[in-house]
Design goal:
35% of the residues lie in helices and 22% in strands. By secondary structure, the protein is an alpha+beta fold. The protein has a 5-stranded mixed sheet with strand order 1-2-3-4-5, with helices on both faces. β2 and β3 form a beta hairpin. The longest helix has 15 residues. The N and C termini lie far apart (44 Å).
Length: 147
């Protein structure tokens, strides 16, 4: 049985989180700077208070990166679920759900009034999870480019 407890990452946890984020990008054929570079960046963001990183599972087996920013349309904060990944061997055991629920609780506790995320149109399991948790897609198109 895998541990479903979610914990907040400290800078010392950056290697495990960096490994998972590297695995995620590699699994979807997206560029990755490598696990060591990811860990270094996570340590910087954690130390500066610019990201909240949550870990779940034994190894850890799941990671979530949450970013908070001042909202434009209200006095509160907006939350952005920047990354969520659960290692394939640990899926379908509730880790993803536990990570998202904890992220939402933290965001609410910090005064966030909105949370959003981006996922691929073809990522059915992720979309199903988000929809079960009450997220809705408005079918807007997501645009991005490198600067």
């Amino acid at each position: 049985m895998h541990d479903r407890r979610v914990r907040r990452a400290e800078p010392a946890d950056a290697a495990g989180a960096g490994r998972l984020l590297h695995e995620f990008n590699a699994s979807v054929q997206m560029p990755t700077p490598g696990p060591e570079a990811m860990a270094r960046r996570l340590r910087e963001l954690l130390a500066a208070g610019e990201a909240i990183v949550l870990l779940a599972g034994d190894a850890p087996d799941g990671v979530l990166v949450l970013r908070l920013r001042p909202a434009l349309w209200s006095e509160g904060l907006d939350a952005y679920l920047e990354e969520l990944y659960v290692a394939p061997a640990a899926r379908r055991r509730g880790l993803g759900r536990a990570l998202v629920e904890e992220a939402m609780a933290i965001a609410r506790g910090r005064g966030a009034v909105h949370i959003d995320l981006y996922t691929g149109e073809d990522d059915g399991p992720a979309r199903a999870l988000y929809e079960r948790l009450g997220f809705a897609s408005d079918r807007d198109l997501y645009y991005a480019r490198e600067l």
